[in-house]
């Protein structure tokens, strides 16, 4: 997802060494470490001191991170190996709301959330600005650092080219032969809701009635089904692209012109994180060039992508494998999202079921 950003360089104060006796190892010197600081520079003065503080905590608790979602399996393993920190994976299949509902009991250190959930719960997060803060687009980060976009994607149509031609639009799905599935119930699943919203776009504006009418017609024609029986699945492009990478002969992905719905997932630190230094190190890793390229390896679009292109640190070979978007992303506002959810709550069951 292309974003307008400006590159930034963040000065890192190197920790100074001090003398040590012949029987003691030299320890890095500097201001006292503040594991709940709002930036690496403010709390640790260097990445080395941050990593040391995190390793002393010994663990990181993450929640709602399926290992096959945007390459999180490799991301988690790379972080654990790089810093010698055990990562405990809590409820990988939980959604954003469940992550927060379970926080008091499960005590995760960090969250990966949809934008609307993060905005509504900003008071529950510990502000922290990563070193690449200025590379992130202003409209998808909290000014205080409570939450900030890590990666994004476009809603897409994955399809079986052996069964149907490439759909050029959502309207094409009404043609004979298409068996269409959403990724769940749009009243409960964020991916299914966003799939409906992509179908609703007209002139860049969401029109929920338009989408409900479309899916109602698919239902009446017997063409709306579950993913196991579908030859078209409406889902995020990184999921459809990952499936296509496994077998391009049986699965391809397209982003229809005029339906370029995009969205970001954002990161946040639990205000009550049991491992606050590890939580901050995790964020620095995710937003580093290495972490952003690992997201892209999972077919997501790095939030720092444009700045990385400018300095030559983006994996351009992998970038070329991402599905081609016919236009810039349409990002729903919170009021638009709320209005659409209200409309679907009243009309979906009656018109689609």
What is the arithmetic mean of pLDDT? 92
Provide the gyration radius in Å. 22 Å
CATH architecture annotation of the largest domain: 3-Layer(aba) Sandwich
Beta-strand content estimate: 5-15%
Oligomeric organization of the protein chains: single chain
Largest sheet: 8 strands, mixed
How many domains would you count in the coordinates?
2
Portion of residues in helices?
25-40%
Layout: helices, strands, pairs:
Blueprint: H1 40-43, H2 47-57, E1 59-63, H3 72-83, E2 86-90, H4 96-101, H5 103-106, E3 110-114, H6 115-120, E4 148-159, E5 180-182, H7 190-200, H8 208-220, E6 232-236, H9 237-246, E7 252-254, E8 261-269, H10 276-287, H11 289-297, E9 301-302, H12 305-311, H13 316-319, E10 330-331, H14 334-351
